[in-house]
Amino acid sequence: MIDVTNLSKRYGDKVAVDDLTFQVKPGVVTGFLGPNGAGKSTTMRMVLGLDTPTSGSVTVGGRRYADHPAPLREVGALLEAKAVHTGRTARDHLLAMAATHGIGRRRVDEVIDLVGLREVAGKRAGGFSLGMGQRLGIAAALLGDPKVVMLDEPVNGLDPDGIRWIRDLLKGLAAEGRTVFVSSHLMSEMAQTAEHLIVVGKGRLIADVSVAEFVARAAHDTVRVRSPQATRLRDLLVGPDVTVTGGEPGLLEVTGLTREQIGDRAATAGLTLHELSTQQTSLEEAFMTLTRDAVEYTAEPTAAGRTAR
Amino acid sequence: MSTDTLRRPTATVPADAKVTFARVVRAEWIKFRSLRSSVIMVIATVVLLAGLGLAFSAVLADNPPEAGTPAPPGGPSSLDPLGASLGGVNLAQLLIGTLGVLLVAGEYATGMIRSSLAAVPRRWPVLVGKIVVLAGVSLAVLVPTALLTFLGAQGVLGDEGISLGDDGVLRAVLGAAFYLAGVGVLGMAVGALLRNTAGAITTVVALLLVVPGVVSLLPERVSDAVSPYLPSNAGEAFMSISSNPDLLSPGAGLAVFVGWLVAVVGAAVVRLKRRDA
């Protein structure tokens, strides 16, 4: 369980995280979604106490991360860049990390096998590809058999096999009752892995919803209707929650009504339809629509501030 | 397959797994010995200390100085039997100081520091653990090196040589090993303060070699007041047996040198605790 309360972080004038409050619950994979620069990595660093919040607080399992006697048993984390000395072998890196908690070689070998690095465990990490570096970071995260697993952009640099492996791993960890918190800037990736979403933009919370709800809320499906009597049909369809746009003569794009509703109304009025199809908004588009709104929302006070000055 | 391994984890993660200072020291020892650069630097320090000590002694044996020749500033004088045998200290300190910097600033350069501090979020044990390891390794290696170099050098000097039992000689030889270990610690603390390898190495070199020279150019009143308290001159006070009026007494020199270490390490710990990693 991760509890973030009114968390803010400022670097000079720049606000990286702005009054974030959310909870990450055990048992499900929670996606931490936002465009690059939304404050995801900063938030994760604050969870680990690597960065100190400007205000607000974050606790893991009810305590500040630094107050846990065995931090690696509490949170296993993969942070964005490779946090490994390039001159050290993968095994030595893990042995050193494990030694801080009195965890022995057997567990180190176990996590090496788990992430599939056995053949290169004796090689220096500086020569690792991005994907191998990610696997090493995940091995380090799992060393302490942690209650919370927190990964920053874990699929970066992984091949399709690796991506599937991560997905299964994360779901497996959540199924064991662990708290799994994974950041990404790719909505499509999160939709396949996460059950719950924390969406941020410009450091602010945009949504704290289940993936199903997010998709339903964000995706306004459009129905494409082609009819020789488009103008008459339009009058039949427009209403308070319905938008109708027309790109070319005889074509209507309708949101707010289902295909069935449109077809029924046309039939009742005796209008001919040549096409009636649902255009699904992709998750990526839905996500971009949401975060774009957030950007516009934050732009307002800035503009006001400029005029005041 | 993957989740199976995770389902029986308690077998390999001990129930008493938690951070203790002794464990952090052990982790830092693993980090130290698993970097090629640290092993190479320690060996180079040993070779330089022994090689130059013997070489200076050989030169001294062939060209005994005329009585009354003044000692050069900054570091053991190579013009007396003790100073010649410890003649490698001046260069060896640059190697071990650089090693100290690398062991800390290298973690910032590679991003390793985030892993280190995530595992030990109280932070200070990481730096103090590094210091314990480097100081321990340095003393374990350099005390025998200094003693053997001294004995070898006196063999080279023959009749001109002095004995380890002579007044203050053992203190000076052990002092040289202690001084070098201290410079390594200084490098670590400066590395932690600056978080930048090049800047930290430059700072250590400047503090040990450049600043004494610059201070000696200041008006005599100022230079006399400041000079003995610089770390290299404070070290010289307990690494030499000549009663140089420009230096502190050996005891005072040791106190001042240790004072420098405590101050710089203290500042490094405070900065490590306060600043974002």
TrEMBL record, chain A:
GO terms for molecular function: ATP binding; ATP hydrolysis activity. InterPro entries: AAA+_ATPase, ABC_transporter-like_ATP-bd, P-loop_NTPase. Residues 2-227 form the ABC transporter domain. SMART domains: AAA. It comes from the Bacteria. It holds the Pfam family ABC_tran. This is ATP-binding cassette domain-containing protein. It comes from Micromonospora endolithica. Keywords: ATP-binding, Nucleotide-binding, Transport. Signal peptide: none annotated. Belongs to the ABC transporter superfamily.
Automatic annotation (TrEMBL), chain B:
It comes from the Bacteria. The lineage of its organism: Bacteria, Bacillati, Actinomycetota, Actinomycetes, Micromonosporales. One of its GO terms (cellular component) is plasma membrane. GO terms for molecular function: ABC-type transporter activity. It holds the Pfam family ABC2_membrane_2. This is ABC transporter permease. Keywords: Membrane, Transmembrane, Transmembrane helix. The chain crosses the membrane at residues 39-61, 81-106, 127-152, 172-194, 201-219, 247-270. The keyword Secreted does not apply.
